[in-house]
Amino acid sequence: MHPVLADFVAGTLGGCAGVTVGYPLDMVKVRLQTQSTAAPLYNGPVHCLKTMVKQESFWGLYKGMTSPLYGVAVTQAIVFGTYGNTMRLLGENSSRNQFLAGAFTGCVQSVISCPLELAKTRMQLQGLRNQIPPSSSTPQPTFYKGPLDVLRHLYRKQGLPGMYRGFAWTLTREIPSFGSYFLTYGLLTKVFTPTDTVDENGKIVHGHMGIGRLILAGGMSGVISWLTCFPQDVVKSRYQTNDRYTSARQCAMDSYRKEGWSVFTRGLGTTLVRSFPTNATTLTVVTLFLRHVRSLNDEKNLKEMVL
CA-CA 20 to 30 A from 274: which of 20, 190, 216, 237? Predict the structure, then answer.
């Protein structure tokens, strides 16, 4: 398999595996981020999780997942395809290039992720219908038949700008997030990978990380990437789910004025807990797939692969 194609396939497989593992906690994160502190529906991540299962069933935890699951096949293919090709263009596999390639990857995938996340977050809030007091600042969600219905509804009412509501804040989140994501993974894999050895026939045996180290490196990369961008994500989520705001800046200022600085870290604990298994799964699957392809390819293609 050609290295370029391998990057895209690896991203698709890793992304689908990761989103399946982490989606329920992503649902909790969105619910906590968008609720009002004046009349909160949940008093913490565990209470939120229990309440959703009780009121919406276990499958309520996966409400709206069709959008990210279908979309992840495209977005993660774009992420790892863009990153791999950008690294090949930059040449040297240095920390600087890993960050730059990751930041550029964040820009590219924002074009896809912005409307998909908008549909996902609005679907995730549908379970709140009839649970929100009229006096609450938490938005009353519109009823949608599915993620595509969200996008159709927004396009009919607001055109393309409606589908890309919050795009600028998506960029401010993704650029530092993906830059630090790939930089961290590159640094950790360099530390964790055993040095190459030479067998009795004089052939070089390349060192490989075990599954445990792959999981640790992938999980930590995800955690660190979220720490660089979480406040932007809070503003983006609130702005995308509440049409009464005319700009993301207004949303940020209004949130701070009413709820203080703590609003920008609400749901952070849940996000970090979700991020570790999600990204550990994604990067482990990607790395193992590319490692398998390397074993089948010749030395030329082996050297061209990035991760």
Answer: 190
Let me know: does 123 contact 144? Beta carbons within 8 Å. yes
C-beta of residue 115 within 8 angstroms of C-beta of residue 162: no
Residue 102 tokens, joined: 């990751």
* pLDDT tens by residue, 83-106: 999 999 998 889 999 999 999 999
Q: Is the dihedral of CA 249, 137, 148, 151 positive or negative?
A: negative
Q: Over the stretch 1-25, which tens digit does the pLDDT of each residue have?
A: 888 889 999 999 999 899 888 888 8
CA 281 to chain centre: 12
Of 185, 161, 183, whose CA–CA distance to 283 is shortest?
185
**Is 235 in contact with 242 (CB distance < 8 Å)?**
no
Asked if 143 and 122 touch (Cβ cutoff 8 Å), the reply is no
Q: 46: helix, coil or strand?
A: helix
Residue of 137, 135, 156 whose CA lies nearest to 241: 137
pTM summary value? 0.79
Look at residue 303 and tell me whether its pLDDT is greater than 50.
no
Q: Give CA 8 to chain center in angstroms.
A: 17
For domain 3-132+139-304, the CATH architecture is: Alpha/alpha barrel (1.50)
* Amino acid letter, 53: V
SS3 (DSSP) at 204: strand
Angstrom distance (rounded) from CA 283 to CA 13: 10
> HSE (CB half, 13 Å, CA atoms) of 59?
1
Backbone φ and ψ for 298, nearest 5 degrees, come out as: -80, 175
- 19 vs 279: CA distance, rounded Å: 9
Q: Give residue-wise pLDDT tens across range 205-251.
A: 666 788 999 999 999 999 999 999 999 999 998 998 888 898 989 99
Q: How far apart are CA 25 and CA 225, in angstroms?
A: 17
First to last CA, the chain: 15
Amino acid code (one letter) for 223: V
